Please model this.
Amino acid sequence: MLNIALPKGRLGEKVYALFERAGYPFAGMLDNTRKLVFVNEELDMRCFWVKPFDVPVYVERGTADIGAAGKDILMERNPDVYELLDLEAGKCRMAAASREDFIDDETRTLRVATEFPNIARKYYASLGREIDVITLRGSLELAPVLGLSDVIVDIVETGTTLRENNLKVITYFADLSARLIANKSAYKFKAGIITEIMRRLKNDRDN
Ligand code: PRP
Model:
């Protein structure tokens, strides 16, 4: 049986729609229930919802053979998996942002609030900038507004959240979207089916 991990939430629903269109439906997957595991006996496949940050864990450890994860999460966790395909769903960008009136004093340590400490450290290290990372779990926009941090490193899609909180983008530094990933040994031992799924998803994406 092939096991598929999808991220629970808006992005996962978009990705599931791609699987369904490609010929891999799982009955009840989009019903708003608390159920997490769905089996398609005919396809000999099992699909489950996991927290977006946890998809790479399930795939790296082989509990899931393949999965879909946001590029942000892959950059943050850097899992030992194959990234097979850009599914081009949920396109957005990683950005550094601040209050509109923020003026950077480069001689001072920059206080950075983020859900992505590794991404933030790597980005500012590339600029040679010393930072103090403050890890939060969402609603990051609050941090500079209330003075907890100087800047945030966060996902920007439409820019509405920033605008409504009087924040501005300093720089965009990564393009993000959902990626199809595979466990390394599953990719070897279940190559036929994984390649076929990849081919169909790619075909659907490009047409
Ligand atoms: C993300 C992100 C921003 C927002 C950006 O949050 O953290 O807050 O979307 O989107 P926009 O540019 O279209 O306004 P999400 O809604 O995923 O919730 P979170 O704050 O819990 O991470």
The longest helix spans residues 191-206. The pocket of PRP is lined by residues 138-140, 154-161 (CB under 6 Å). The longest strand covers residues 167-176.
